[in-house]
Write a structure and sequence with these properties.
By secondary structure, this protein is an alpha+beta fold. The protein contains 13 helices and five strands. It has helices at 5-18, 39-45, 50-57, 66-75, 80-89, 106-113, 134-140, 153-159, 161-164, 172-190, 195-206, 208-215, 263-274, and strands at 120-123, 129-132, 226-231, 235-246, 251-257. A hairpin with a 3-residue loop joins β3 (226-231) and β4 (235-246). This is Helix-turn-helix transcriptional regulator.
Length: 280
């Protein structure tokens, strides 16, 4: 496929003009004259230089890679249909749709952008973090940094002791059962060639605890309404966890809140002041 430079440029300009700062969690400011977002704002959202993005809108520069197009599609909060259209304009075949996709839908992104002062994250069905709010990073660390099987919290739970240190010891047994149960259900749903089945095979080789729980064939083990975190700076936190599901991508938005007036509420406010300095 060949790149359609004029079509690509027109589509990018139109999508940028339609997005408002508040749609992506940015302040509007008092002297904004640009219709929609500025080029530099879109470039920052897409994790690329302003010059690179501007050249695309001006029908110049090299053909963008698939990785670049995926980043632009996410930064512009495109739907799956719009993302696929963008790929074709750039001269690429769109990614295969399905539950392994990592393109976060615009609806979940809009909600996440409005939760800057709340711990929240968007995860796949395997517990792979795709996006976090700043306070989410402050709570658990940057869990988007992991690669390979370690992207899954269920896999890390049985292989990285630091993962367990974030949760109260009294919850460890339930969480071990829950992660094993969840992996079994996804592996059964997606089949023996799925990433979930591959993770299970790896864990059977690496963790005796996982092997014992896997042999129990438990399914449907759910977490409690309240999660107990142990933060290295602010201490114990009892947080309610609400979730919102995007059925098209099997992504979940997880939002953590504390009961008003509680000690955990005060500690969460303290964490918002400390920020991400204490958790790597």
């Amino acid at each position: 496929m060949e790149i359609d430079r004029s079509g690509l440029a027109a589509f990018l300009r139109r999508r940028r003009e339609l997005l408002q700062p508040e749609d992506v969690g940015l302040p509007r400011g008092q002297r904004r004259r640009t219709r929609g977002l500025r080029r530099e704002e879109v470039a920052a959202l897409c994790h690329m230089s302003t010059d690179y993005y501007a050249r695309l809108e001006r029908e110049r520069g090299p053909q963008p890679s698939e990785q670049m197009i995926a980043s632009i599609a996410q930064g512009l909060h495109l739907s799956l249909d719009e993302r696929d259209h963008l790929f074709r304009l750039a001269g690429h075949n769109p990614p295969v749709r399905g539950t392994v996709g990592e393109h976060v839908g615009p609806g979940l992104l809009r909600i996440l952008d409005r939760l800057a002062d709340t711990p929240a994250e968007i995860v796949t069905e395997l517990g792979e973090t795709l996006r976090q709010t700043p306070l989410g990073v402050a709570l658990t660390g940057d869990t988007t940094r992991f690669t390979g099987p370690e992207r899954s919290i269920g896999y890390r739970w049985f292989t990285l002791p630091a993962t367990r240190a974030l949760y109260a010891p009294e919850d460890h047994d339930l969480l071990s059962r829950m992660f094993t149960s969840g992996l079994r259900q996804v592996a059964t749903l997606r089949g023996p060639d799925s990433r979930a089945a591959h993770y299970a095979e790896l864990l059977l080789e690496r963790s005796d605890e996982f092997g014992r729980l896997w042999d129990a064939h438990e399914v449907g083990v759910r977490p409690g309404r309240v999660k107990h975190f142990v933060h290295p700076e602010v201490g114990h936190l009892e947080l309610n966890c609400q979730s919102l599901l995007d059925p098209d991508q099997s992504h979940q938005l997880l939002v953590y809140t504390a009961d008003p007036g509680s000690e955990s509420h005060d500690r969460l406010r303290l964490l918002s002041v400390i920020g991400t300095q204490s958790v790597g």
